[in-house]
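In this supplementary section we document a worked example of the pipeline. Step one takes a protein sequence of length 241 as its only input; no multiple sequence alignment statistics are reported here. Step two produces a three-dimensional model, which step three serialises into structure tokens for compact storage. The input and output of this example are shown verbatim.
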Amino acid sequence: MRVGLFVTCLVDLMRPRIGFAALKLLEAAGCEVVVPGAQTCCGQPGWNSGERSSARSLAEKLIAEFEDCEQVVVPSGSCAGMIKTHYRDLFAGEAAWLARAEALAAKTRELTDFLVNVAKLQRVPGHFNGSVTYHDSCSGLRELGVKHQPRHLLAMTPGATLREMQDCETCCGFGGAFSVKFGEISAAMADAKCDRIVATGANAVALGDLGCMLNIEGRLRRRGDARTRVLHIAEILAGEA
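The serialised model returned by step three reads:
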């Protein structure tokens, strides 16, 4: 299966090892992985900020780069959600581009969803010696239905023990531009999330969206917590944590 890996701009700029971990997992699933070298952003920041023109330019670029792939895999619920849910709105009323956007949306999957439901991965290449709690990021959960997939894969990971937190589906306060526009509210939400994480006693919190990761890790460190690790699910599954 020829799979296009959309790394996402945030992963590329802030934590590229997530991209390499995703690549390792896809290859372990027997996929031929294509990573377009000129890929950048899905256009989500512009779309969320009302910058329709810039969002459209980036969306057109991404469609052209990935539409020849059999499947497109994204290690980010929010970016996959942008392609699958919001590209239809972005190109509404434009028959040619809408058809291309819908075709891409139909074959785009969040990483853990692809590994469980398409590749049907039976064995993860990594291991993790410790306990993990999982935060359900909003876009992955609510737009894509990503819930059991990461937990299924964690259960397959040697050495990993899942400790569920209370309110695991509650937003961490990031929300892209929300955290900038409503800083005090965002900080309070992040504090509540950190309280839930710490209460589990887990060695690490795992999740599937780097924006949420940066928000949670930043708040934990500001609170003086240097112990709790904040990891992308791909890092754990690939043994790159």
